[in-house]
Amino acid sequence: MPMGDADTLSRQAEAFLSANPGVSLVALGSGEHAGALDLCPLGVPVTLLPAERNADLAMQYLRLNQLAFGGIGVPRWVMSDLYLLPGAIGLLRCPARLLPAPVQERLGLAGEDPAIGAAYYAAPSVTPGLFIGVSLLSVLPGTGASAWVKALTLRMLRARRLRGVAQWDNPSLRVHSRLGPLRLVGRVPGGHEYGERSFVYESELTDVSRLGNAMARRLSLTPTLRVPATDLPALSALLDRAEAGEVLHLVPPGLAAGQVLVREGSLD
């Protein structure tokens, strides 16, 4: 990658941490994977905490995940078998006092107790370099923590491409598109709790210049279509086109004024 592009992105990461004193990056996963991780993504040091010896932190993540996602929060065995054993969760930790009071209370933390402020997990796939986005959460609103824990974790994992599931009407599209345009892939395989309003997207992570511009909200790509997020038949037709091989992207910010922002054809 061009060094200047990487340096620019590193400065952005440094600025995020400087604006949020007390926040640090931690990896929670099997100690077996230490050699496979980049433990200084974008110049940000990562503390690797082997899950085998940090059960309290694993349980804090579990409680926070279940608080964030309610009925579809991760079960304990799934966290152990499918999150911690094969990979690593990226965590932004901070003093508990930075969390909203109800969250502090639910986690049984206060003051300077180390707390999880944001977390992201992407699962490795059988395709080299391709990761599958599984879970993104943040209890540090207004800080940009959601976008940065996702970006830094993917760099830590050495991901080159990311596929994820999102909902047309979910404000999280604005976070996902902070990493650049979202290419439409198609429908969610095997069904989903929110299947009728969900889709699979792919993010290309190797264009560091585009990633830096997107993270800085400087990436300007004009949509050719604006589709209401409630118009499920029209959005389903977009997925038909994507599955037939047409190149379609959601462009930043992905969702605006209730409309999904689509660009047809090349991004150039």
In short:
The protein has 268 residues and is α+β, with helices and mostly antiparallel strands. The protein contains eight helices and eleven strands. The two termini are 19 Å apart.
Q: Radius of gyration from the CA trace?
A: 18 Å
Order of helices and strands: HEEHHEHEEHEHEEHEHEE
Mean pLDDT: 94
Distance between the termini: 19 Å
Percent in strands? 25-35%
Low-confidence parts, pLDDT < 50 over ≥5 residues? none
- How helical, in percent, are the residues? 25-40%
The count of β-strands is 11
Strand order of the main beta sheet, please?
Answer: 2-1-3-4-5-6-8-7-10-11-9
Q: Main β-sheet: number of strands, strand sense, barrel status?
A: 11 strands, mixed
Count of alpha and pi helical runs? 8
Which structural category fits the helices and strands? Answer: alpha+beta
The coarse overall form would be globular
Please, could you describe this protein's structure?
There is one protein chain. This protein is an alpha+beta fold. It has helices at residues 3-19, 55-69, 76-84, 101-107, 145-156, 172-176, 208-215, 232-243, and strands spanning 24-29, 46-50, 88-95, 114-124, 130-138, 161-167, 182-186, 198-204, 225-228, 248-256, 259-264.
Features:
single chain; alpha+beta; 11-stranded mixed beta sheet
Write the layout of secondary structure elements.
Elements: H1 3-19, E1 24-29, E2 46-50, H2 55-69, H3 76-84, E3 88-95, H4 101-107, E4 114-124, E5 130-138, H5 145-156, E6 161-167, H6 172-176, E7 182-186, E8 198-204, H7 208-215, E9 225-228, H8 232-243, E10 248-256, E11 259-264
Parallel strand pairs: 1-2, 5-6
Antiparallel strand pairs: 1-3, 3-4, 4-5, 6-8, 7-8, 7-10, 9-11, 10-11
Helix pairs in contact: 1-7
